[in-house]
Design brief:
By secondary structure, the chain is mainly alpha-helical. The protein is built from nine helices and no strands. Helix 3 packs antiparallel against helix 4 (108-132). The protein is elongated. The two termini are 51 Å apart.
Length: 220
């Protein structure tokens, strides 16, 4: 075979520019989908682990309440904490179902919109948990004192327990105000994450990304 024949044969095996560009785009989309799936599979596993830990907490608190049925304060404290964990798990189960239901074969724009919707739900849930967490201090104090062998009401008095509940509410409000004021000014990675979540900035960012995708879908 002559050199020209070899060159022609080799050229015939090479895709034209349009075909190669289309192939590269397809490979890029596939790689992007795989990356999204890997990240969200990890998020789903973490969510399922949270659900399992919370349900263990509910079972433990239920057993505690049953064993201290003669102390109404202990039962109420455990009930408040258990109800909080159950409410949290309802939201987490919804997230886990949404993560499981993502179809990675759908076009990229709807896929990204689904992911941003889930991110917005997670950001809102995180902000709610961080805002309400200080309110759990008073019932947790009652349970901890009881576990140590004491009676919180008899030992500390109803006024002290009520003061702790008010203190928890004050801490929640102060934390929210500080997060809004100093968001983006802290160097700590954890504090930066907490301030973004508690101030609602992470939730608003997710909503803005979702709105941008919806506008792009309308244009496209």
């Amino acid at each position: 075979m002559e050199r020209d024949d070899l060159r022609e044969a080799w050229a015939s095996l090479q895709p034209d520019a349009a075909t190669q560009a289309a192939l590269e785009r397809a490979l890029a989309r596939h790689s992007l989908r795989r990356g999204m799936q890997t990240a969200l599979d990890g998020e789903r596993r973490r969510t399922l682990l949270e659900i399992a830990i919370n349900y263990v907490g509910v079972v433990v608190l239920g057993a505690f309440a049953a064993g201290h049925a003669h102390r109404p304060a202990d039962v109420v404290g455990a009930g408040i904490l258990g109800a909080g964990l159950i409410a949290l798990n309802i939201a987490l189960i919804g997230l886990a179902v949404a993560l499981k239901g993502i179809d990675y074969e759908t076009p990229l724009l709807p896929l990204q919109a689904s992911i941003e919707t889930i991110r917005a739900r997670r950001a809102k849930l995180t902000a709610t948990v961080l805002a309400l967490a200080p309110l759990a201090w008073a019932p947790l104090l009652v349970v901890l004192v009881s576990l140590a062998g004491g009676d919180a009401i008899a030992l500390l008095g109803p006024a002290y327990i009520a003061a702790n509940a008010a203190f928890g509410a004050g801490v929640a409000i102060a934390a929210w105000l500080l997060a809004r004021r100093y968001r983006g000014r802290v160097r700590s990675r954890w504090l930066s994450w907490a301030s973004n979540a508690l101030s609602g900035h992470a939730y608003r960012e997710a909503l803005e990304r979702l709105a941008s995708l919806e506008r792009f879908k309308e244009i496209a």
